[in-house]
Design brief:
The chain is mainly α. The protein is built from 17 helices and no strands. The chain has helices at 19-26, 28-42, 49-63, 74-79, 94-110, 127-130, 132-153, 158-177, 181-191, 194-197, 200-204, 208-220, 224-235, 245-258, 270-288, 297-303, 312-322. The longest helix has 22 residues, at 132-153. The protein is elongated and about 85 Å long.
Length: 328
Protein backbone atom coordinates (compact mmCIF):
# COMPACT_ATOMS: atom_id res chain seq x y z
CA UNK A 1 0.00 0.00 0.00
CA UNK A 2 1.31 3.45 -0.92
CA UNK A 3 1.92 5.70 2.09
CA UNK A 4 0.29 9.14 2.00
CA UNK A 5 1.95 12.12 3.68
CA UNK A 6 0.15 15.19 4.97
CA UNK A 7 1.26 17.16 1.94
CA UNK A 8 -0.11 14.53 -0.46
CA UNK A 9 -3.74 14.94 0.50
CA UNK A 10 -4.40 17.44 -2.28
CA UNK A 11 -6.75 20.42 -2.32
CA UNK A 12 -9.88 20.54 -0.17
CA UNK A 13 -13.10 22.45 -0.52
CA UNK A 14 -12.40 25.23 2.04
CA UNK A 15 -15.99 25.14 3.29
CA UNK A 16 -15.78 21.48 4.30
CA UNK A 17 -12.65 22.16 6.34
CA UNK A 18 -14.84 24.17 8.72
CA UNK A 19 -16.60 20.97 9.79
CA UNK A 20 -13.74 20.13 12.14
CA UNK A 21 -14.42 22.09 15.29
CA UNK A 22 -18.23 21.99 15.19
CA UNK A 23 -18.30 18.23 14.62
CA UNK A 24 -15.95 17.73 17.56
CA UNK A 25 -18.28 19.74 19.79
CA UNK A 26 -21.05 17.29 18.91
CA UNK A 27 -18.97 14.09 18.95
CA UNK A 28 -16.31 13.77 21.64
CA UNK A 29 -15.43 10.21 20.54
CA UNK A 30 -14.54 11.50 17.07
CA UNK A 31 -12.31 14.16 18.64
CA UNK A 32 -10.48 11.59 20.81
CA UNK A 33 -9.92 9.30 17.81
CA UNK A 34 -8.40 12.14 15.81
CA UNK A 35 -6.19 13.18 18.74
CA UNK A 36 -4.93 9.59 19.09
CA UNK A 37 -4.24 9.42 15.36
CA UNK A 38 -2.29 12.68 15.42
CA UNK A 39 -0.21 11.52 18.40
CA UNK A 40 0.56 8.30 16.53
CA UNK A 41 1.59 10.29 13.44
CA UNK A 42 3.97 12.40 15.55
CA UNK A 43 5.74 9.22 16.73
CA UNK A 44 6.69 8.38 13.14
CA UNK A 45 10.51 8.90 12.90
CA UNK A 46 10.30 9.34 9.12
CA UNK A 47 7.95 12.32 9.33
CA UNK A 48 9.18 15.33 7.35
CA UNK A 49 9.80 18.56 9.35
CA UNK A 50 6.92 20.42 7.70
CA UNK A 51 4.61 17.44 8.30
CA UNK A 52 5.65 17.27 11.96
CA UNK A 53 5.02 21.00 12.39
CA UNK A 54 1.59 20.81 10.72
CA UNK A 55 0.59 17.79 12.82
CA UNK A 56 1.76 19.44 16.05
CA UNK A 57 -0.18 22.63 15.26
CA UNK A 58 -3.39 20.71 14.62
CA UNK A 59 -2.90 18.64 17.76
CA UNK A 60 -2.29 21.76 19.84
CA UNK A 61 -5.41 23.47 18.47
CA UNK A 62 -7.62 20.47 19.15
CA UNK A 63 -6.21 19.91 22.62
CA UNK A 64 -6.99 23.40 23.86
CA UNK A 65 -9.90 23.38 26.25
CA UNK A 66 -12.69 25.92 25.84
CA UNK A 67 -12.56 28.85 28.23
CA UNK A 68 -15.80 27.66 29.74
CA UNK A 69 -16.57 23.94 29.66
CA UNK A 70 -20.05 24.48 31.04
CA UNK A 71 -21.31 26.67 28.22
CA UNK A 72 -24.73 28.00 29.00
CA UNK A 73 -27.45 27.50 26.42
CA UNK A 74 -30.33 29.92 26.00
CA UNK A 75 -32.73 27.03 26.70
CA UNK A 76 -31.01 26.48 30.08
CA UNK A 77 -31.46 30.14 30.97
CA UNK A 78 -35.11 30.10 29.91
CA UNK A 79 -35.74 27.24 32.33
CA UNK A 80 -34.25 29.30 35.19
CA UNK A 81 -36.55 32.25 34.71
CA UNK A 82 -38.64 31.58 37.82
CA UNK A 83 -36.75 33.92 40.14
CA UNK A 84 -38.15 34.60 43.63
CA UNK A 85 -37.31 38.34 43.40
CA UNK A 86 -37.61 39.58 39.83
CA UNK A 87 -35.72 42.79 39.15
CA UNK A 88 -36.97 45.75 37.15
CA UNK A 89 -35.29 48.28 34.89
CA UNK A 90 -34.96 50.92 37.62
CA UNK A 91 -33.11 48.63 40.05
CA UNK A 92 -30.60 47.29 37.51
CA UNK A 93 -27.41 49.19 36.73
CA UNK A 94 -26.30 49.96 33.17
CA UNK A 95 -23.28 47.68 33.72
CA UNK A 96 -25.45 44.75 34.84
CA UNK A 97 -27.72 45.18 31.84
CA UNK A 98 -24.84 45.49 29.35
CA UNK A 99 -23.02 42.44 30.72
CA UNK A 100 -26.06 40.18 30.62
CA UNK A 101 -27.17 41.47 27.19
CA UNK A 102 -23.67 40.61 25.96
CA UNK A 103 -23.78 37.17 27.56
CA UNK A 104 -27.19 36.38 26.03
CA UNK A 105 -26.21 37.76 22.61
CA UNK A 106 -23.07 35.63 22.53
CA UNK A 107 -24.86 32.48 23.71
CA UNK A 108 -27.41 32.85 20.93
CA UNK A 109 -24.79 33.80 18.31
CA UNK A 110 -22.41 30.93 19.07
CA UNK A 111 -25.24 28.36 18.89
CA UNK A 112 -25.53 28.74 15.08
CA UNK A 113 -23.95 25.70 13.35
CA UNK A 114 -21.77 26.48 10.34
CA UNK A 115 -23.99 24.55 7.90
CA UNK A 116 -26.83 27.05 8.35
CA UNK A 117 -24.68 29.66 6.59
CA UNK A 118 -24.70 27.65 3.36
CA UNK A 119 -27.33 27.90 0.62
CA UNK A 120 -29.22 30.99 1.88
CA UNK A 121 -31.63 28.83 3.86
CA UNK A 122 -32.66 31.85 5.92
CA UNK A 123 -34.28 33.34 2.80
CA UNK A 124 -36.34 30.27 1.89
CA UNK A 125 -40.00 29.61 2.70
CA UNK A 126 -39.00 26.78 5.05
CA UNK A 127 -36.33 28.91 6.77
CA UNK A 128 -37.44 27.86 10.26
CA UNK A 129 -36.70 24.23 9.38
CA UNK A 130 -33.54 24.92 7.35
CA UNK A 131 -31.93 27.52 9.61
CA UNK A 132 -33.60 27.35 13.04
CA UNK A 133 -30.65 28.88 14.92
CA UNK A 134 -30.25 31.81 12.53
CA UNK A 135 -33.98 32.49 12.93
CA UNK A 136 -33.66 32.27 16.73
CA UNK A 137 -30.80 34.78 16.60
CA UNK A 138 -32.91 37.13 14.50
CA UNK A 139 -35.86 36.75 16.87
CA UNK A 140 -33.66 37.42 19.89
CA UNK A 141 -32.39 40.63 18.26
CA UNK A 142 -35.98 41.78 17.64
CA UNK A 143 -37.08 40.86 21.17
CA UNK A 144 -34.22 42.82 22.75
CA UNK A 145 -34.87 45.84 20.55
CA UNK A 146 -38.60 45.66 21.33
CA UNK A 147 -37.86 45.48 25.06
CA UNK A 148 -35.81 48.68 24.91
CA UNK A 149 -38.54 50.57 23.03
CA UNK A 150 -41.27 49.19 25.30
CA UNK A 151 -39.39 50.16 28.46
CA UNK A 152 -39.02 53.77 27.31
CA UNK A 153 -42.67 54.00 26.31
CA UNK A 154 -43.72 52.54 29.64
CA UNK A 155 -43.22 55.89 31.41
CA UNK A 156 -46.02 58.46 31.41
CA UNK A 157 -43.89 61.48 32.32
CA UNK A 158 -41.35 63.07 29.99
CA UNK A 159 -38.51 63.16 32.52
CA UNK A 160 -38.62 59.41 33.19
CA UNK A 161 -38.65 58.67 29.46
CA UNK A 162 -35.60 60.89 28.92
CA UNK A 163 -33.81 59.19 31.83
CA UNK A 164 -34.61 55.78 30.34
CA UNK A 165 -33.14 56.84 26.98
CA UNK A 166 -29.98 58.08 28.69
CA UNK A 167 -29.61 54.81 30.61
CA UNK A 168 -30.08 52.69 27.47
CA UNK A 169 -27.48 54.75 25.60
CA UNK A 170 -25.10 54.13 28.51
CA UNK A 171 -25.86 50.40 28.25
CA UNK A 172 -25.14 50.52 24.51
CA UNK A 173 -21.80 52.25 25.10
CA UNK A 174 -20.75 49.60 27.63
CA UNK A 175 -21.73 46.95 25.05
CA UNK A 176 -19.43 48.74 22.61
CA UNK A 177 -16.59 48.63 25.14
CA UNK A 178 -17.24 44.88 25.50
CA UNK A 179 -17.14 44.49 21.69
CA UNK A 180 -20.81 43.53 21.58
CA UNK A 181 -21.77 45.41 18.44
CA UNK A 182 -24.92 43.36 18.07
CA UNK A 183 -26.06 44.78 21.42
CA UNK A 184 -25.21 48.31 20.29
CA UNK A 185 -27.42 47.83 17.24
CA UNK A 186 -30.25 46.27 19.26
CA UNK A 187 -30.44 49.41 21.39
CA UNK A 188 -29.80 52.08 18.74
CA UNK A 189 -32.35 50.53 16.38
CA UNK A 190 -34.93 50.71 19.20
CA UNK A 191 -34.16 54.40 19.78
CA UNK A 192 -34.66 55.04 16.06
CA UNK A 193 -38.12 53.45 16.00
CA UNK A 194 -40.65 55.97 14.73
CA UNK A 195 -42.64 55.64 17.99
CA UNK A 196 -39.56 56.77 19.98
CA UNK A 197 -37.84 59.04 17.45
CA UNK A 198 -40.87 61.33 17.07
CA UNK A 199 -41.05 62.20 20.78
CA UNK A 200 -39.56 65.70 20.45
CA UNK A 201 -40.39 66.79 24.01
CA UNK A 202 -38.71 63.68 25.40
CA UNK A 203 -35.57 64.09 23.28
CA UNK A 204 -35.38 67.76 24.31
CA UNK A 205 -34.80 66.54 27.89
CA UNK A 206 -31.96 64.20 26.84
CA UNK A 207 -28.49 65.67 27.50
CA UNK A 208 -26.24 66.85 24.68
CA UNK A 209 -23.57 64.41 25.84
CA UNK A 210 -25.96 61.48 25.49
CA UNK A 211 -27.06 62.62 22.03
CA UNK A 212 -23.42 62.96 20.93
CA UNK A 213 -22.64 59.49 22.29
CA UNK A 214 -25.62 58.03 20.48
CA UNK A 215 -24.45 59.59 17.20
CA UNK A 216 -21.03 58.01 17.73
CA UNK A 217 -22.57 54.58 18.43
CA UNK A 218 -24.83 54.82 15.40
CA UNK A 219 -21.91 55.67 13.12
CA UNK A 220 -20.03 52.60 14.36
CA UNK A 221 -22.84 50.18 13.47
CA UNK A 222 -24.26 52.08 10.49
CA UNK A 223 -25.12 50.02 7.39
CA UNK A 224 -23.64 52.73 5.14
CA UNK A 225 -20.99 51.48 2.72
CA UNK A 226 -21.89 47.86 3.49
CA UNK A 227 -21.17 48.39 7.21
CA UNK A 228 -17.79 49.95 6.41
CA UNK A 229 -17.21 51.33 9.93
CA UNK A 230 -18.28 48.14 11.67
CA UNK A 231 -16.02 46.01 9.45
CA UNK A 232 -13.07 48.26 10.23
CA UNK A 233 -13.87 48.09 13.94
CA UNK A 234 -14.13 44.28 13.89
CA UNK A 235 -10.85 44.03 11.98
CA UNK A 236 -9.07 45.82 14.83
CA UNK A 237 -10.95 44.03 17.60
CA UNK A 238 -9.83 40.91 19.41
CA UNK A 239 -12.45 38.34 20.48
CA UNK A 240 -14.54 37.89 22.52
CA UNK A 241 -16.92 39.90 20.41
CA UNK A 242 -20.47 39.71 19.09
CA UNK A 243 -20.71 41.06 15.55
CA UNK A 244 -23.96 41.88 13.81
CA UNK A 245 -25.10 38.69 12.09
CA UNK A 246 -27.11 40.50 9.42
CA UNK A 247 -23.91 41.92 7.94
CA UNK A 248 -22.54 38.44 7.26
CA UNK A 249 -25.85 37.10 5.94
CA UNK A 250 -25.91 39.97 3.42
CA UNK A 251 -22.35 39.11 2.34
CA UNK A 252 -23.18 35.44 1.89
CA UNK A 253 -26.33 36.23 -0.09
CA UNK A 254 -24.33 38.57 -2.36
CA UNK A 255 -21.75 35.86 -3.09
CA UNK A 256 -24.36 33.11 -3.61
CA UNK A 257 -26.43 35.19 -6.01
CA UNK A 258 -23.58 36.91 -7.85
CA UNK A 259 -21.15 34.04 -8.34
CA UNK A 260 -21.87 30.73 -10.14
CA UNK A 261 -21.07 27.40 -8.50
CA UNK A 262 -19.28 26.20 -11.64
CA UNK A 263 -16.90 27.83 -14.10
CA UNK A 264 -17.59 28.07 -17.84
CA UNK A 265 -15.49 24.90 -18.21
CA UNK A 266 -17.86 23.06 -15.87
CA UNK A 267 -15.37 22.94 -12.99
CA UNK A 268 -16.17 23.68 -9.35
CA UNK A 269 -15.74 27.41 -8.72
CA UNK A 270 -13.25 27.25 -5.87
CA UNK A 271 -12.96 31.03 -5.85
CA UNK A 272 -16.58 31.19 -4.67
CA UNK A 273 -15.96 28.44 -2.10
CA UNK A 274 -13.00 30.38 -0.70
CA UNK A 275 -15.05 33.58 -0.36
CA UNK A 276 -17.79 31.74 1.52
CA UNK A 277 -15.19 29.95 3.62
CA UNK A 278 -13.52 33.24 4.57
CA UNK A 279 -16.80 34.68 5.88
CA UNK A 280 -17.76 31.54 7.82
CA UNK A 281 -14.26 31.32 9.29
CA UNK A 282 -14.57 34.89 10.57
CA UNK A 283 -17.96 34.08 12.11
CA UNK A 284 -16.52 30.96 13.76
CA UNK A 285 -13.65 32.98 15.19
CA UNK A 286 -16.12 35.16 17.08
CA UNK A 287 -18.27 32.16 18.05
CA UNK A 288 -15.41 30.23 19.62
CA UNK A 289 -14.04 32.80 22.06
CA UNK A 290 -16.23 32.97 25.16
CA UNK A 291 -16.90 35.89 27.46
CA UNK A 292 -15.99 35.48 31.11
CA UNK A 293 -19.26 36.92 32.37
CA UNK A 294 -21.04 35.40 35.33
CA UNK A 295 -24.68 34.70 34.60
CA UNK A 296 -26.99 36.89 36.72
CA UNK A 297 -30.41 35.28 36.77
CA UNK A 298 -32.13 38.38 38.18
CA UNK A 299 -31.03 40.36 35.11
CA UNK A 300 -31.69 37.78 32.40
CA UNK A 301 -35.14 37.19 33.85
CA UNK A 302 -35.91 40.84 33.14
CA UNK A 303 -34.27 40.82 29.69
CA UNK A 304 -36.11 37.69 28.53
CA UNK A 305 -39.52 38.58 29.95
CA UNK A 306 -41.69 38.79 26.83
CA UNK A 307 -44.65 40.04 28.86
CA UNK A 308 -42.86 43.40 29.01
CA UNK A 309 -42.83 43.75 25.22
CA UNK A 310 -45.40 46.02 23.58
CA UNK A 311 -46.26 45.32 19.94
CA UNK A 312 -45.37 47.85 17.23
CA UNK A 313 -48.90 49.18 16.64
CA UNK A 314 -49.57 49.69 20.34
CA UNK A 315 -46.20 51.41 20.73
CA UNK A 316 -47.11 53.96 18.08
CA UNK A 317 -50.57 54.51 19.58
CA UNK A 318 -48.93 55.19 22.96
CA UNK A 319 -46.50 57.56 21.27
CA UNK A 320 -49.37 59.54 19.73
CA UNK A 321 -51.16 59.61 23.08
CA UNK A 322 -48.04 60.87 24.89
CA UNK A 323 -47.23 63.50 22.27
CA UNK A 324 -50.15 64.08 19.86
CA UNK A 325 -49.42 65.21 16.33
CA UNK A 326 -49.24 68.97 15.94
CA UNK A 327 -52.10 70.44 13.85
CA UNK A 328 -51.12 71.07 10.22
Amino acid sequence: MTEIGLNDLGPFDPVTLLVKDKDFELNNELKMNVLNLLEEVLRDPDLLPQERKATANILRALSQEDQDDTHLKIEDIMQMLECPKPECFETLSAMELAEQITLLDHIVFRSIPYEEFLGQGWMKLDKNERTPYIMKTSQHFNDMSNLVASQIMNYADVGSRANAIEKWVAVADICRCMHNYNGVLEITSALNRSAIYRLKKTWAKVSKQTKALMDKLQKTVSSEGRFKNLRETLKNCNPPSVPYLGMYLTDLAFIEEGTPNFTEEGLVNFSKMRMISHIIREIRQFQQTSYRIEHQQKVTQYLLDKSLIIDEDTLYELSLKIEPRLPA
